[in-house]
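COURSE: Structural Biology Practicum
ASSIGNMENT: Worksheet 4, Part C
STUDENT ID: 0417
INSTRUCTIONS: Below are two proteins. For each, the amino acid sequence is given first, followed by its structure token string. Answer the questions at the end about the second protein only.

PROTEIN I
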Amino acid sequence: RQQGYLNKECLSGLRGIFERDLYRDNVISFRNGCELRVPFLDHSLIEHALTIPEHYKVSEEYRKLVLRNAAEKLGVPEKVAWRNKTAAQ
């Protein structure tokens, strides 16, 4: 895989989130008297995440390796830290 490809894909996905999803979600939350919080979309966090080498982010089996490893080191049970993603709807 070409170095930098993962970061380019991440940035492309983030542009879509900022341009499309956040506007819609903000309108919905505002109409319901709530303020939307998106801590993983903090600009400084995104900038830092883009400096992390790609091999620390994904493997053949897992995505979000940095978060999974951090969760495990913070005491999150292994079966929770390494479980498959489920839709939150």
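PROTEIN II
(use this one for the questions)
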Amino acid sequence: MSLLHPHARFLIFTVFIIITSFSSETSCFGLHSRAYSTSRIVTIPSASPSTSPPNPKLVNVDAFGAKGDGGDDTQAFKKAWREACSSKDSVLVVPQNKSYHLKPVTFSGPCKSNFTFKVYGTIKASPRKSDYQKHKRQWLVFQNIQNFTVEGGGTINGNGKRWWNNSCKAVTFLNCNNLTVDNLRIKNAPQMHLTFQKCINIKASSLVVTAPGHSPNTDGIHVTETQNIHIQNCTIRTGDDCISIVGGSRNVEAMDITCGPGHGISIGSLGAGGSFDYVSNVMVNRAILTETTNGLRIKTWQGGSGYAKNITFQNVEMHNVRNPIIINQFYCDKKEPSCSEQASAVEISNIVYKNITGVSASKEAINFKCSKTFPCHEILLEDVNLARQEDENVKAACDSVKWTNQGNVSPSC
């Protein structure tokens, strides 16, 4: 080394440091990977970035004939979509201070990568029932799209108060991959507000979802047949589940959720009509529920099969919530023989309730109604403290369940 020029020695030393640092970082990452693989933390791969590319192609719906004056803007939006979808690094813009009325419409891919839909103004469902004769189940559908972002701070108004008893889903993302939905207001859906179906790698954040507490079937965020989804910093006030996670879904994380009114945060229902269903690897962390009809609920039908497992609810505050913690393996939304116990049921196991506190509006703050043929098992209650107003007694009802308590648990099975 002494024969080398000083600059050469410095270069060799620098390369050595870089290689050593890289090796250290790789080893640390490997250690973290092994830790995560054995923990209950749900890790969600990153979805598409929520920022526009450096030099995007701007596509304004107004340039394609949209007026935002109460007339029908559906065709203009479809034309603008085709232009943006077929262009690389495009941004489809819905201008602010305007309200655009749309009939039921499907926006389809595949599109070129890095496609952003900026909603600054309001997109509103057509008020005419005749427009829904052929599309009674869905209003806005985005399907078969990858690397797609919807954001902008605008509003999507389902105009659902006109027909809540005869309704369709407001916004559906179907078969999408690497999707970000951020900073939007979605309100008054005819039925479910925001549905993710058969999607992979999703980020839904900073959403405000609202409908009157009496509006039927207006779930806030509905997750079905979807994997790797991260929901964060959302406020949901509706007439049904704030978040519902149903069959075929796994690796779901919901954090910093404000819920109520509504029916709480639900897994299921699962196993309807004797079907096989599953939900696994769910983490609900840091949620506030206020005056909801249920709190943290898992619901399955008798006669079905499958499983709901590896589910954690932690750091949840309850404010005057009925049924704060409930597992019901006898769920049934109508009176019929299928509500009674049958030979098969969806198996429920490895469920954790940790640091759940607050006020119960019902005397039974914990209700585990499990099947004798398929009892709920590996249920952990850790630091659960639920009370009633004015220090009234609460109780736990626990049927066919194998549970463990850790820390202070009240009420207890």
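ANSWER KEY EXCERPT:
Q1: The chain has one domain: 60-410.
Q2: Residues 6-38 form the longest helix (33 residues).
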